[in-house]
Amino acid sequence: xxxxxxxxxxxxxxxxxxxxxxxxxxxxxxxxxxxxxxxxxxxxxxxxxxxxxxxxxxxxxxxxxxxxxxxxxxxxxxxxxxxxxxxxxxxxxxxxxxxxxxxxxxxxxxxxxxxxxxxxxxxxxxxxxxxxxxxxxxxxxxxxxxxxxxxxxxxxxxxxxxxxxxxxxxxxxxxxxxxxxxxxxxxxxxxxxxxxxxxxxxxxxxxxxxxxxxxxxxxxxxxxxxxxxxxxxxxxxxxxxxxxxxxxxxxxxxxxxxxxxxxxxxxxxxxxxxxxxxxxxxxxxxxxxxxxxxxxxxxxxxxxxxxxxxxxxxxxxxxxxxxxxxxxxxxxxxxxxxxxxxxxxxxxxxxxxxxxxxxxxxxxxxxxxxxxxxxxxxxxxxxxxxxxxxxxxxxxxxxxxxxxxxxxxxxxxxxxxxxxxxxxxxxxxxxxxxxxxxxxxxxxxxxxxxx
Length: 451
Ligand SMILES: Cc1cc2nc3c(=O)[nH]c(=O)nc-3n(C[C@H](O)[C@H](O)[C@H](O)COP(=O)(O)OP(=O)(O)OC[C@H]3O[C@@H](n4cnc5c(N)ncnc54)[C@H](O)[C@@H]3O)c2cc1C
Known about the structure:
seven-stranded mixed sheet; five-stranded parallel sheet; 33% helix; globular
């Protein structure tokens, strides 16, 4: 079967690889010159290091993503914790959630015992765990409502849940859908101790995507970068191809000033693996007001802001630290994660659900990151900031409120041969790499079953 996949993020690559492995004839179109979409990276011209569009983390429960990476022979790019541990810092100093390799959820209980939080918070955490384990999914509730119903007080939220929830959902608990947190909690913390371990990538995200693309191309797949899909052709309710604009693709073509060309890729099946807002314009106008294209158009985005910083010396002495009571929520030692733990130190800060931070000027965001270092890391006293970069992703994820859960479509569409993939489709997970990969694989399975 001739298939076109539109979108070279995790969802598109996962779908393309799954279909290629079934020996279909697959072409992937990606509008940008790099693969990876919202999990991408470029090479920093000054330091020569990879700079991500924003630091991403995975966990051991990302079973489809880890499988995809293993199939592509790229597992050596992953750094997997032996046991879950997360460091936090506040004005009282460092404290650590360190979970020993016990049967889940005993590993988490043991971790909680070691974390510096009041006993009342530990007890509330146990109550939440029991609700998630034994209760019904909190469909239709916001996460703040669910926290209230399960007896989580202000301290439990401040010290435990809000930082975790905002990082997982890219949304405040007041706005986020509780059921997404519930699903992640079950997969990450109640399944096995291995599922909750953090998984870091030792290189930039586009490096991983290039490896996935190599695997796909070695098996006969075709990747077209700088190929902007403009429309999916539909005849008598069935896809017939994709119209796209191919800009100069290779360095030689760019240097030679090759002109953009409009082309059509014939196809009996199309996987649209683009973000929600990019989907409606791709289908013929008559379909746009209908389901699921109309619903896609009603989803909105939630921003993430990242600050990358190079210091003249080592100030942060671990790979990742949660910065409590700080605008910058987490700091990562990117050098250490990339296997280079010395000076100059390459740090990355992240602010999720960054509605307030995103409009602020770069200088203020860098000053805010610097202030967190000065407040919590004594070694910052003598350190100098060599350089900084600020990155904003306005639509980092879809805004994952309870209403959005009613809008997220499955892979099927009323157009025969057209299926949807993407982190925003109905995966049961928040907008994550794992959701994107599972959606791509689900789209491929549906095409296999129905084409
Ligand atoms: C800063 C940041 C931090 C994040 N942190 C985490 C994290 O820690 N853990 C986690 O699991 N997730 C995280 N996420 C979310 C994660 O990146 C996304 O869920 C995932 O990458 C989405 O993949 P996707 O394939 O569904 O969509 P995308 O990555 O958006 O891919 C869609 C692709 O389609 C292309 N495209 C769009 N329109 C067209 C067109 N007309 N023609 C051709 N191509 C087109 C785009 O260029 C893009 O490459 C984060 C996201 C951001 C932005």
